[in-house]
Design goal:
The protein is mainly β and about 180 residues long. It is built from one helix and eleven strands; from the N terminus they run H-E-E-E-E-E-E-E-E-E-E-E. The radius of gyration is 20 Å and the shape is globular.
Length: about 180
Amino acid sequence: MLSIRSRRLVRGGLGTLVGVLVLPLIGSAPAGAQQDARGSAKAVAMTELDFLLGDYTCAYTDLTLEEPTTVTLNWDTKKTLEGKFYEMHLKSPAFEGRWVFGLNTVDNRYTSFYWDTWGNTGTASSAGWKHGMLRFQGPYITPGGHADSKDEFRVVNSDRFTDDAFIRFEGQPWKQISHVDCRRS
């Protein structure tokens, strides 16, 4: 059993540890106004991903097949965890997936986590919008093995966006695997 003095030291140590861990997360600048360690002038902000919010009907064209095939998917995205993350639910009669987007304020990047019923899981990050495109890239595990993946989002207008997905297995070039055209439902 700890003495009163020992309990105070443990509580104080835990309080210090919590403070050290939480302060970098909340920062002192308003959301979207923080600078990264490299001194970048423009910090990424969750509001730049607002185009994903809402219900969409998407034409998903699978480019891996000998003859590309298009099916309809529903993508709906909602804010979660006090708006710090956006969670997308992807669904069709033969498929279901989740895609969560958030901010990594330490590296001034967006981050994402993905998983689906076809056995794909992965993480990716993005430095933000560049030349009208938002690219998420990172390692994935697929039924075919480990791969690099990238998704390139483009906003067409306030009710429509596209996502071109690519994959690369070790020692191979990038291959486009799908084109998704989403329209607000």
